[in-house]
Amino acid sequence: MAKKFMKGCEAIAEAAVRSGCRFFAGYPITPQNEIPEYFARRMPEVGGSFVQGESEIASINMVYGAAQTGVRSMTSSSSCGISLKSEGVSFCASARIPIVYCNVARGGPGIGAIQPAQQDYMQATKASGNGGFRMIVLAPATVQEAVDMTYEAFDLAQRDRNPVLILADGVLGTIMEPVELPPMRSDEELRKLREETKDWALRGHKAGEKKLILPGGWQGQEDRCKANAAMYDTWEKDIQVEEFLTEDARVVIAAYGVSARVAKSAIRLLRKEGYQVGMIRPKTVSPFPYQSFDKLDYGRVKAILDVEMSIPAQLVYDVELGVKGRCKVHTCLRSGGEIMGREYIVNAVKEIYNV
Amino acid sequence: MMKKVYTRTAGIEADMVSGFCPGCMHGLIFKLIGEVLEEMNLLEETISVQGVGCCGLAMEYVTYDNTTAPHGRACAVATGIKRTNPDKLVYTYQGDGDLASIGLAESMSAANRGENISVIFVNNGIYGMTGGQMAPTTLVGMKATTAPEGRNPAMHGYPMHMCEIMNQLTAPVYLERTSCNTPANTRRTKAAIKKAFQNQIDQKGFSMVEIVTSCPTNWGLNPMESLEFLNEKMLKEFPLGVIRDRS
Ligand SMILES: Cc1ncc(C[n+]2csc(CCOP(=O)(O)OP(=O)(O)O)c2C)c(N)n1
Ligand code: SF4
Ligand SMILES: [Mg+2]
User: Fold this and answer.
1) Which of B64, B86, B186, B226 keeps 20 to 30 A from A152, CA to CA?
2) Measuring CA to CA, how many Å separate A208 from each of A191, A196, A199, A220, B29?
3) What is the mean pLDDT of residues A291-306?
4) Given ligand 1 and candidates B98, B102, B107, B142, which is best to mutate, with the most ligand atoms within 8 Å of its CB?
5) Which residues of B, range 59-98, sit inside 8 Å of A by Cβ?
6) Given pLDDT bands bounded at 50, 70 and 90, which one contains residue A218?
7) A201 shares contact with chain B (CB less than 8 Å)
């Protein structure tokens, strides 16, 4: 199939449309404005709806509403705007409403910086709202991956009746790359997919067949939590990870998203100079590929280098859980609008290589 | 031969009790909504969005599709539902804390977009569910647990008149304030609800019925005293009538 040269944000939006997204609501914030802008142009062409919400809070709640009727629905934002969505996301997780949302992350905390960052890892993977729910969180490193993951996200969301988060960053959102777009789902396919939601979705029912969406309640909450937990336990099969040149590695880099992309180029450079360096790149940061770290041969691996655009480090806690103290875990960090540089990683590897 | 002249609406489960306090008007309003939907033959076409407040008690006992929004966000949730299901009747049911305080942006913005939904706004001048805290509609001088000396304009400002505030917008088609303090006004309320629903069916856009009610429990009055307070104080501050009708 022919490739198209597309900007990350727009590619994500087009992939969503092709996967069947027919409702989008969002609020402007840099660096993700091209997502709502694209939907505003595209939705009328496919019979979908776009609403510019009055806030991120309103937008996630519009999506919460639309998705309750079995229509594939999405919202997006960046960092501080994602925080505002957390109550709504938590409601979706509680009431088991399938939605997809995307964080084109920028600097933080607070209003932070509009430049790319990875400061939202903990929020994304551990607590995207109150109540201890979990989500599948996909972390693309290229525009192609962002497209493929967005397309898949709607299927995962519908399968589990749970929110799915695309954790991107400002680099991915704004760069242009050639991509191969997935096939457009036909109206007939979408009708069938919506039909699959008929056991729970709202769309008007006879007395006795009424559908009730419950984001909580005075009774049965423990049972609902147990059912959720049981569903989270099935996600082992959904782990996606790239293990790059780890077979002979003495130093293993842990990185995701844009940092991993820069790290790969650093590794190629280091390899030319004879350094045995590899990388473990979680593509699902939740569920996390602990196993990839667990199975490393710690007779050979002398150190792990956690590379992320976050200060303080956040990914490192998951890495430590996989490494379980079997070797030292170092960090190589940038943030505040500073994009990870290749030289930065090269130097960090050299510093720890012979220690 | 006995003739059946009155029966419970099919909009409410036959075997459930409402759980509202004695003298509370929430139960009555849900009954009116059920009757209207039944008369309009819309029970199977309705998706209702509950705000967060005492109205949550009705979640289980209405017979039609029902969801709960996060506190204040009902108009946004209804927007998402209605945009994707233009053929369904979508209404929100919200208290004064829900609609006029935490949800002010969502309520005003939905009204301003002329969203084709119907809003049932139940103004009892207090936060009922959480135990009597001050609401944006609490009367001047009226005591609340968070205004123990009574609402003081110097500190708390004045009660908000949502119908009049929304009347500043161009898009809404129908804004009426009613009450359930007398049988006549209760009938008037039912007619207003019906009109709001009919406007939606006719694609006319945003309608809101504000119903001024009581909260005996948190007003610290018995049901009869509450009715007096409603008649003498609440309705002075919130005069009844059609604020806008462009339908
Ligand atoms: C985000 C959030 N904040 C606060 C609450 C607690 N809360 C529940 S109901 C309510 C007030 C309800 O008052 P009102 O809307 O006037 O309804 P009433 O009970 O009086 O009918 C509050 C503050 C909540 N559920 N969610
Ligand atoms: S607390 Fe007030 S509003 Fe709530 S059910 Fe009781 S009387 Fe009604
Ligand atoms: Mg109230």
Assistant:
1) B86
2) 25, 20, 13, 20, 22
3) 98
4) B98
5) 59-60, 62-70, 73, 76-81, 83-85, 88-89
6) confident
7) no
Distance of CA B157 from the midpoint of ligand 2 (Å): 24
pLDDT at position A66 over 80: yes
Q: Is A272 left (phi over 0), alpha (psi -120 to 50) or beta?
A: alpha
Question: CB-based contact (8 Å) between A211 and chain B?
Answer: yes
Q: Assign residue A225 the CATH number of its domain.
A: 3.40.50.970
ipTM of this predicted structure: 0.96
E strand or H helix at B65: strand B65-68
Parent domain of A232: 4-237
Tracing tokens 């409410």 back to the chain, one arrives at: B12
What stretch of H or E contains B198? helix B183-201
Kindly list the distances between the CA atom of residue A53 and the CA atoms of A50, A324, B8, B16, B68, in Å, as whole numbers in the listed order: 9, 45, 40, 38, 19
Same domain for A226 and A188: yes
Whether residues A83 and A161 share a domain: the answer is yes
A159 in the same domain as A15: yes
CB crowding A123-135: b at 16 or more within 10 Å, else e: bbbeebbebebbb
Residue A15 has a CB neighbour count (10 Å cut-off) of: 26
| pLDDT over 90 at B1, yes or no | no
Residue A124 tokens read as 């994304």
Domain total for chain A? 2
Q: Are residues A172 and A277 in the same domain?
A: no
A44 and A165 belong to one structural domain: yes
Distance, CA B127 to ligand 3 centroid (Å)? 4
Sheet holding A328-333, edge to edge: A241-244, A277-282, A251-254, A303-308, A328-333
What ligand is nearest to the CA atom of residue A215? 1
- Are A53 and B64 inside 8 Å of each other by CB? no
Contact A58/B47, CB-based, under 8 Å? Answer: no
DSSP H or E stretch at residue B118: strand B118-123
Q: For B112-158, what is each residue's pLDDT tens digit?
A: 999 999 999 999 999 999 999 999 999 999 999 999 999 999 999 99
Which chain A residues contact residue B59 at CB under 8 A?
212, 214, 217
C-alpha distances in Å from residue A220, one per residue of A4, A147, B20, B56, B64: 50, 39, 21, 16, 21
Q: What is the SS3 assignment for A106?
A: strand
Domains identified in chain B and CATH numbers: 26-142+160-245 (3.40.50.970)
Using an 8 Å Cβ cutoff, are A186 and A18 in contact? no
Chosen domain end from A237, A269, A286: A237
Among A205-209, B32-36, B181-185, where is mean pLDDT lowest? A205-209
CATH code, A309: 3.40.50.920
Which of A184, A211, A237 corresponds to the end of one domain? A237
Ligand 2 environment, Cβ below 6 A: B 20-21, 24, 26, 54, 124, 128-129, 215-218
Same domain, A227 and A306: no
**Are A187 and A104 found together in one domain?**
yes
Cα dihedral sign, A251-A256-A262-A264: positive
Supply the residue whose CA is at minimum distance from atom 2 of ligand 2: B215
